[in-house]
Amino acid sequence: MHTVWILIIGSLVGVSCALVGCFLILRRLAMLGDAISHAVLPGIVIAFMLTASRNTLPMLAGAAAFGVLTTWLTNVLMRRGQLQSDAAIGVTFTWLFAVGVILVSAFTGHVDLDVDCVLHGEILFVPFDTWTVGGVDIGPRAFWILAGVTLANLLFIGLGYKELKLCAFDAALAAAMGFNVALWHYLLMGLVALTTVAAFESVGAILVVAMLIVPANAAYLLTDRLSVMLLLASLFGVLSAVGGYGLATLIDGSIAAAMAVFSGLIFLAAALLSPTHGALGYYLARRAHRASSHGSATPETP
Amino acid sequence: MDAWAPGWLEFFQFGSVNVRTVTLGCMVIGLSAGVLGCFAFLRRRSLLGDALAHAALPGVCVAFMLTGTRDPLIIMLGAVVACWLGAVSIDAITRYTRCKEESALGMVLSVFFGVGILLLTHIQHTGGAAQAGLERFLFGQAAAMRPHDLRVLSIASVLMLAATALGYRHFKLASFDPQFMEALNLPRRWASLAMATLLVLAVAIGLQAVGVVLMAAMLVTPAAAARYWTHHLSVMLALAGLFGAISGAIGAYISYLQAGMPTGPWMVVAVSVIFGGSVLFAPKQGLVARGLRTRRFRRRTAEENLLRTLYRLGEDHNDWEQGYAPAELIQYRPMDTAVLLRIMSRLERQGLVYEPEEGLFQLTGPGLERAARLTRLHRLWELYLTQKLHLPADHVHADAEEIEHILTPELEARLVASLEGAARDPHARAIPEDSDESAEADSKSFPGGNNGNPRQ
Q: When you count CB atoms within 10 A of the terminal residue's CB, does the N or C end of chain A come out lower?
């Protein structure tokens, strides 16, 4: 049963991250996702310290506050400080993450949180932390939280599909048509922060980046339709979780890290084998082109 | 607190070899990272350092697994190889797939880091006690630095800085204008490659004190901070190195005081504080300096506007030797009376306006001179816009309202030359004569400038 719970929780992490990840990479915000997932750490730690427990609501509030702080600071540095965007992001999130790590190190004896947890989570122990409602054990707390976040992501994408799609592919057109691009941007960032917090316990603050963008990029190489991309990315998220678990038991290491590695393998496979955008497809198309231009009188375009 | 006092004293006496080693080591690391980060910063690829630093982790683990030692040279070698693989992967992903560059950065960062963590946990689970201390490459643990480590670090750092000095001219060109470099037929690709290699080396050197996770900060933040102080690349490199070294010393100091504290985060916090100070207080580009400059300009503009309004009133009444009440001024230039009085008192202090009677304002001699010159610039510009750019006469006032505060004597001379001594503006008002000619006449006919204001 323990294994099943780990697989279920890992899959939920994979799906919820992959869903928002698709929009992140389409809007070319992959590194901003990285920055936010790092920068919410002090918020999570402060919530831990204040409540002395793993209550989800204070953690969410703390993370949300620092997510907003990150975007605000980056903006201030860019607008008022006239700093280029990459440096503004780099300075802001490393500073906040450093503060978070210092807090963890300073209070590591007092709260149930350590540096390892920050780095790669503790998905192995997550199933033991169960929720009891009215005396009945209803399963791991992380399961319910991640299920809720996955549902929230699905709902958000379902309700705002048209707007998100337009903002992702042509923000200028979306603005011209009267959509509030900034609002959708901040909603998406809020959802990234929410997903990061939910996944934090299971995969940690850094490896969550892999779950956010790697399956989404693999799916991006296989299709040109957003709906198919979302489906494929979710599938790859689940595959990463299952494959990662197998890999981790095989070589006896962190499950979360193995999930990241497995998602990397999936991306590699997609990059090599994708019929339309992969190396193999490219090679075949070029060979067909060569053969046709050498062999027959009517060359085709590949 | 008492227990701390001997601690920090001992630190500053540099009595023990250990303290010296750790402090110097951190400073060397901060210095080299700060200097080499500048080039990545200038090429707007600050986050590349982040990805490469994370990518070093599997190299560290593999080097340890293969040799079983934690010799800094071997670990650095492993880190360099892994960083290189990371850089090559980023390049390959952006070149051969349709994934965007920032996606490639993020994927290499997280997947390589995942491999590293997987190997690290594998070593932890299987290796027993021998592996103890490999985690310190995550967040840095300067306290574990030995004299041998310091020697390796220092030699590597000196070599890197020497290479930077040798390639300085090429790196400069490649950072600011790669197209031009290509046009000159200089080896742009080689310069790029050399810069990337040096960046990788800086990351590998820094691992021990800063750790892979926060190494990016030591590359970006000193460079970003230095940028606020100077426009010269050489000064920027020196400043970034200095900032890096200072934060290295601070990080070493704190991790010395508090055993078990990772050094990297404290170095990052120290350098971030330096950065924050630079953003706020750098002499020219700092927020405070810029804010003061804006304020001074706004105040001058408001003052000059009132001078010009007084001039207009005098013109309309054909009398500059009489005081005008705030109400009359406000008719010409709507504003709050309190604001107007505040500006007037500033003008009085400067000796440009005086009060012949309580509540009435009159231009002094120098005041009239200034006002006439401003009006002249305003009307010359209006005339220029209508005559040369053929704008309608009712569209030019707002533009002139802004330019009158900025026009220099040189531009004024060119305006006069191109307008060939025109005497009236598009609204048929006289353009006041050049202040040099009218200056003497003014001071004779307006005694207020000398008598009315004793402070002058």
A: N
CA distance A293 to chain B (A): 24
Mutation test of the interface with chain A: which of B41, B88, B93, B97, choosing the one with the most A Cβ atoms within 10 A? B97
Can you give the pTM of this predicted structure? Answer: 0.82
Burial of A51 (0-12, 13-18, 19+ CB in 10 A): middle
Q: pLDDT tens digits, residue range B58-77?
A: 999 999 888 887 788 888 89
- B153-196 pLDDT, tens digit per residue, is 899 999 999 999 999 999 999 888 888 888 888 888 888 889 98
Determine, for residues A260 and B114 on separate chains, whether the beta-carbon distance falls below 8 Å: yes
Contact A34 B110 (CB under 8 A): yes
For residue A136, the Cα-to-chain-centroid distance in whole angstroms is: 33
CA–CA separation, B363 and B352 (whole Å) = 6
Residues whose CB falls within 8 Å of the CB of residue B181, separated by 6 or more in sequence, listed in order: B170, B173, B174, B188, B191
Q: What is the DSSP string of B418-443?
A: HHTS--B-TTSPBPPPPHHHHHHHHH
Q: What is the ipTM of this complex?
A: 0.90
Sort residue B211 into left (φ over 0), alpha (ψ -120 to 50) or beta.
Answer: left
B261 alpha-carbon distance from chain centroid: 31
Residue B436's pLDDT band, with cuts at 50, 70 and 90, is low
Torsion of CA B259, B264, B269, B274, to 10 degrees: 120
Contacts of A105 in chain B (CB under 8 A): 260-262, 265
Instruction: Specify the higher pLDDT residue, A89 or A298.
Output: A89
